[in-house]
Amino acid sequence: MLLQAQRQKVIEIALKAQRDKLIPLTMGNFSIRDKDTGYVCITPSGMEYSLLQPADIVIVDLYGTIIDGNRKPSIETQLHCRTYAKRADVFGICHTHSPYATAWACCGKEIPVIVAELAGMIGGPVKCAPYAPMGTIELANIVAEHIGSQNAVLLENHGMLAVGENIDQAYANAVVVEEGAKVTLYAVQIGGMKTITDQECKNLKKQTMESYGQK
Questions:
Q1: What CA–CA distance (Å, rounded) separates 113 from 171?
Q2: Which residue among 13, 102, 132, 192 is least crowded, i.e. fewest CB within 10 A of its CB?
Q3: In a domain, 215, yes or no
Q4: What's the Cα-to-Cα distance from 209 to each of 22, 117, 159, 202, 203, rounded to whole Å?
Q5: Mean per-residue pLDDT for 44-55?
Q6: Three-state DSSP class for 9?
Q7: Which residue segment(s) compose the domain that 179 sits in?
Q8: Total number of domains constituting the chain
Q9: Could you tell me if residue 144 is left (phi over 0), alpha (psi between -120 and 50 degrees) or otherwise beta?
Q10: What value does the mean pLDDT of the chain take?
Q11: So which residues are the catalytic ones?
Q12: What CATH number should be reported for the domain holding residue 34?
């Protein structure tokens, strides 16, 4: 089977997102870009994640053309493909509808940086891309443009997109954004919230990239 290991990994991450309550039902979508072929392995549209088999994961090229698989790919396939095309450094994408991040997105507000983890992994405030209908080329283009060099972006009235050098990193970024959104909401309610400066965000991201984890 073409890219069987990558297909299995996409299922693993989708199930983890469901278990960690980053997505309700079958909402959200997940993908891996294979470094050798450049093909994208993406979740199918509207299928229960617990029932997925590797053959259900659809393989497309960067234009969204199906290369392998009998299922209909996610309606947000272009969202993934356009983001990959924009970011040569990205090989994993998680599009979630996690409640706290989505709440900020529904207000059209970026998530300010008040926790070091958000600075270290995302690199600054999580910006909010303007609204466009889900599943459209318009949304795909807007999000690809607004994510810039950051590792996550909010989608107004929709959800959040996190990227990474692999799908595990993209998933970690999605979790960190959700946690940052939750903590920031509580801080706003308490009052006197203090944000981390742009320069310190850059310092923390550099430090995280260079020294965090096992090398």
A1: 19
A2: 192
A3: no
A4: 25, 12, 26, 11, 10
A5: 96
A6: helix
A7: 4-210
A8: 1
A9: alpha
A10: 94
A11: 76
A12: 3.40.225.10
